[in-house]
Amino acid sequence: PGRRRGGCGKRVVFRVPDDDTAPQGEVSLGVQTGRLRHPPEGLFGGRPGRAARFEVDGKPADPYALTRLRPGQRVLMEAAGGGGFGNPLEREPELVAKDVREGYVSEEAARREYGVELTAGGEADLKATAELRKRLAAGESEG
């Protein structure tokens, strides 16, 4: 999150088939990703992006080792999202509302990270946003 938000990460989820298309025995998956422990930094007041994730059946897996998978196992891979540039409370409320409509930012993150209140129709409520941003800038929690 930032005045200019960082790039979005990517999520891939799949399950090794366990029906008549299933492989015989185990399959191997090789993955290499960065930013698992250290998410991308934000700049000039921007907040860090989201760290990467690699899981097998809901448990963290080693992205630098060859992973053996059995039929029926579920894999989740998430690439890191970029850090923001500038104070997120300075992002134009209309852009945050557009980010929410396009699925890049949740309504909760719009309030918590950007200090933007939305109308029932999904537009930025400029008066409520100004009040929320004032509270957030003063260090009060959202809500």
Tell me what the structure shows:
The protein has 143 residues and is an alpha+beta fold. 19% of the residues lie in helices and 15% in strands. The protein contains 3 helices and 6 strands. The strands form 2 sheets. Strands 1-6-3-4 form a 4-stranded antiparallel beta sheet, with no helix packed on it. A hairpin with a 2-residue loop joins strand 3 and strand 4 (59-60).
Average pLDDT score: 93
Q: Give me the Rg, rounded.
A: 19 Å
SSE class: alpha+beta
Q: Please give the domain count.
A: 2
Enumerate how many helices there are, as a single number.
3
Question: What form results from the Cα inertia axes?
Answer: elongated
**Could you give a short account of the major beta sheet?**
4 strands, antiparallel
Query: Ends: how far apart?
Result: 19 Å
Topology as a string of helices (H) and strands (E): EEEEEEHHH
Which regions are unreliable across 5 or more consecutive residues at pLDDT < 50?
A: none
- Give the strand line-up of the largest sheet: 1-6-3-4
**Percent helix among the residues?**
10-25%
How many strands in all? 6
Strand percent estimate: 15-25%
